[in-house]
Amino acid sequence: MSTFSKGALKGCIVSALLVFGAGCSTHPNDDVIAKNVQSKVAADPATKDSAVLVTSKDGKVSLRGSVKDGATQLRLQQIAREEPGVTGVDDQTAVLPEPAAAPEQAANTPTTAPAPVETPKPQSIVLPAGTTLTVTVDQALSSDKSQSGQTFQATLAQPVTVRGTTAVPKGSKVTGTVVTAKKKGKIKGEGQLSLSLTSITIRGKNYPIQTGTLDSTVKGKGKRTAATTGGGAAGGALIGGLAGGGKGAGIGALVGAGAGLVGGALTGNKQIEIPAESPLTFTLSKSLTLPPGRN
Fold first, then answer.
1. What distance in Å separates the CA atoms of residue 264 and residue 238, rounded to the nearest whole number?
2. Region label for 246, one of left (φ > 0), alpha (ψ between -120 and 50) or beta (otherwise)
3. Do residues 228 and 237 touch, judged by C-beta distance below 8 A?
4. Positive or negative: CA dihedral 229, 232, 236, 238
5. What distance in Å separates the CA atoms of residue 154 and residue 176, rounded to the nearest whole number?
6. Could you give all domains of the chain from N- to C-terminal order, each with its CATH number?
7. Residues 6+ apart with CB under 8 A from 207
8. In 3D, which of 25, 21, 22 has the Cα closest to residue 85?
């Protein structure tokens, strides 16, 4: 073989190798194909909600997963075929069944829910004017030792009920005031003692109240009068006799439903005295509204 012939043969071999290499470089890359198709499926409005996995082998794309309908399935196939380098499409996706329709309601079934039944709100408790409060005083009071404007404490001796509910329980603390306290003179002048209640504490909460005034007067030579004013019934006083030597009045008995103040001296130069724990009955002159109570 001539030198020229050997050179020509070598050139042909190199050319063939270059052409073969160029052909290999244009062979489709399966990873790139699968990635591109997967991205386009995710971006396309018709297929973005489909649960589809894309793979590729030797340029043939396989589609696996589920789609909502046949139209979506056809769009997936179209996206895969349009990808450069794809030689075929194997569609293995499944169309999901449509959800069953809800059964129709019977004709006589109401279409709207019944209106909720409102629970009645608890009503406030009202103690009307004229309600009596029987208390026992916590300290002694008298016409000669007490001062006008002085505050005294008392305890409710009987519960007050309204509509079967204990509105004010026994033992509730009560505050009162000495409206008038006047010492009786030895020869002339009257001894006076007037009381009223100003507040009551019920289950830990304090309420202002207004009651009639309980008045007792001792005139010269031992004549005594007693009355309930400002809404109470006159003559309903709690009468008590003095113990011997003027050392304190005994606790008298209740007289009538409007029983009130303890009387003092019947003769001589005695004062009006109310020992501690004496029962007194006051009458509300203004109604009192309380929150819903409990028995």
1. 10
2. left
3. yes
4. negative
5. 7
6. 12-95 (3.30.1340.30), 125-290 (2.40.128.260)
7. 199, 200, 201, 288, 290
8. 25
Contact 60, 89 (CB under 8 A): yes
- How many CA within 13 A on the CB side of residue 117? 2
CB atoms within 10 A of CB 148: 13
Q: Is the CB of residue 157 less than 8 Å from the CB of residue 134?
A: yes
Task: Compute the CA torsion angle 140, 142, 146, 151 (nearest 10 deg).
Answer: 50
- Cβ within 8 Å of residue 190, ≥6 positions away: 182, 184, 217, 218, 219, 220
Tokens of 269: 């130069």
Q: List the beta bridge partners of residue 236.
A: none
Tens of pLDDT along 142-162? 988 899 999 999 999 999 988
pLDDT digits (tens, 9 = 90+) for 78-107: 999 999 999 999 999 998 887 665 555 555
pLDDT at 4 over 60: no
129, 284 Cβ separation under 8 angstroms: yes
Rg value, the chain, Cα: 53
- The dihedrals phi and psi of 40, each to the nearest 5 degrees, come to -70, -35
Q: Are 124 and 162 in contact (CB under 8 A)?
A: no
CA dist 265 → 143, 228, 260, 279 (Å): 11, 18, 16, 18
Measured between alpha carbons, how far is residue 1 from residues 6, 12, 57, 231, 235 in Å? 7, 16, 46, 151, 161
d(CA 180, CA 167): 31
